[in-house]
User: Fold this.
Amino acid sequence: MDGQIRHNWTIEEVRQIFDLPFMELVFKAASVHRQHHDPAEVQVCKLISIKTGGCPEDCSYCSQSSRYQTEVKASPLMEVDEVLEIATKAKAAGVSRVCMGAAWREVRDNRQFDRVLEMVRQVNEMGLEVCCTLGMLTEEQAKKLDAAGLYAYNHNLDTSAEYYETIITTRTYADRLKTLENVRKTGITVCCGGILGLGERAEDRVSLLHTLATLDPHPESVPVNTLSQVAGTPLQDQPPVPVWETGRVIAAARILMPRSVVRLSTGRAKMSVSDQAMCFMAGANSIFSSDTRRMLTLAPSPDYDADRELFSVLGLKARAPFKDRETSCNVDCEDKAERAGESAPVSSLA
Ligand code: SAM
Ligand code: SF4
Assistant:
């Protein structure tokens, strides 16, 4: 039955879903979406680049790698107060999750990490979900973040295991999976997804979806990014991803991971209202919004005003923080009581 939570998907089953005629796929995804989520609710997240540029990794899409000459200027780790100021504005605009990104290969046990832990503590105390994306983590570091109140850890697989080394050579897919495993040893939820438009084949998209959908448990958040082509990086001339291809991946992710929050992420700024409506219909229920019109660094983002208008036109409302500690699912919910928790109020973006 569509909408069941499964972790034993075969690659052939994933391919069959992925290859469905587009309208059939979106209809199925929209039906699954309604079993597990309020379709009018969309999570609004704010990205903060707490440490920008100068990263030693060679991710061929990234504006922050020190190996490429891009417009990004490296800057040191932000002060806690700066982060709190941005988070306060974000909360007032209806944001429920603050995602703090650092251009690090991995976390080191030093005073900078202590400062990040303090940021996590203080933003969490504001009643916001806090997510970090800091590169690779040990189990001990994950436990420290958990103790500080971290709600989610983002660590994207980006593409298929097969295509990964074409995009990144300074770490392996296994390294990525190991960090996810370390996060799973704590109470922190997992945010893990990919990027479309890296030159991958449809088969790589199927393979990435299969890897994500066979993780047990599924990542609670699944960001679907499309490449933001950054001048100076090896992928600067990649062609844009057609919107129906983004919609196809979102819809497949929704069917395969019915309870996860699927984020329409980098690339949304280039979409019309109707493109975005199609993605919400296909099961996307999370976005990044920003006062700076930027995601982390160069990639454009719609701003709070544009999203207020978007929500008003489409009849959407901002999802409250900590919503997935309760559950709105109607099927397969033996664990409903276990997942139930407090839902904090949030001012609606609409
Ligand atoms: N250094 C950490 C890491 O790599 O996990 C965190 C920061 S990194 C900027 C966070 C994520 O942003 C990456 O995993 C990647 O999926 C996404 N990203 C980075 N550059 C991008 C681009 N040009 N287009 C689309 N997504 C991008
Ligand atoms: Fe560094 Fe992360 Fe960018 Fe890769 S994606 S270069 S690890 S900041």
